Amino acid sequence: MTDVIYPNYFLGSWTATSTLTSISGAPSSLRELDEAKPITYNVRFVDGGGGRVIADREYNSVNYALSTLGKDAVLGYVQDGPNKGTASILAGGNVFDVVVLAVGRTQENIGEDWEKGGCFRCAENTRSVISKSRSSGDAGGGGAALSDVETVSQWKLGENGEIVGEQISRGFGVPNETQAIRERSILAKDVRGYEVVLRKRS
């Protein structure tokens, strides 16, 4: 599966500020939204060859995890092409192996071209496989937990060279063999909206 190809304006290093703007799917949603604080982390977009601008997935994933889980949480991370990332995460005194697999992507330009106020939209579907690492001291390891997430992002140029994005992230229960794919929409258990602003780093 090919990677998302971003507009050339993304090329370079940025400081991302992500603000939770909406949340549904849990009784504590309103309290969590009220208490949410913006998350700031570094991201970069690089030349993927042939003039194609792509996300530096390893760099971006590690920095996002450090900003949300803590500076000591990421013990290791390996990006194997655009479709698979493997992390070792420390949480609650245990070490977890997390494998994130991309299972679907789309992208499109909306409206007029980028310079005249058009938007760039992309979507990615991922499946995470989370298991307790044997290095955590639990010989049994336990069964793996599965999580499917769909993230839809829409970007446009803002003021002063900023790039402003709106994101919707939907977490799903993983369908079993007897559930039709068309039922997937009713399995959404966590839907979150974010505003993300990218500011160029010098």
Walk me through the structure.
By secondary structure, this protein is mostly beta strands. The chain is built from two helices and ten strands, in the order E-H-E-E-H-E-E-E-E-E-E-E. A ten-stranded antiparallel sheet has the order 3-2-1-10-9-8-7-6-5-4. The longest helix is centred in the first third of the chain and has 13 residues, at 57-69.
Task: List the SSEs and their pairings.
Blueprint lengths: L11 E13 L4 H7 L3 E9 L5 E3 L1 H13 L4 E6 L4 E8 L2 E17 L8 E14 L12 E13 L5 E10 L15 E13 L2
Antiparallel strand pairs: 1-2, 1-10, 2-3, 4-5, 5-6, 6-7, 7-8, 8-9, 9-10
The dominant shape is: globular
Task: Count the DSSP helices.
Answer: 2
The amount of helix comes to under 10%
Strand content of the residues, in percent?
A: over 45%
Spell out the helices and strands N to C.
Answer: EHEEHEEEEEEE
- The order of strands across the largest sheet is 3-2-1-10-9-8-7-6-5-4
Number-wise, the strands total 10
Distance between the termini: 33 Å
Radius of gyration computed on alpha carbons:
18 Å
How would a textbook summarize the main sheet? 10 strands, antiparallel
Low-confidence stretches: 176-186
Structural class: mainly beta
In terms of quaternary structure, the protein is single chain
- Mean of the pLDDT scores? 85
Based on the model shown, name its key terms.
202 residues, mainly beta, 10-stranded antiparallel sheet, 10 strands, 10% helix, globular
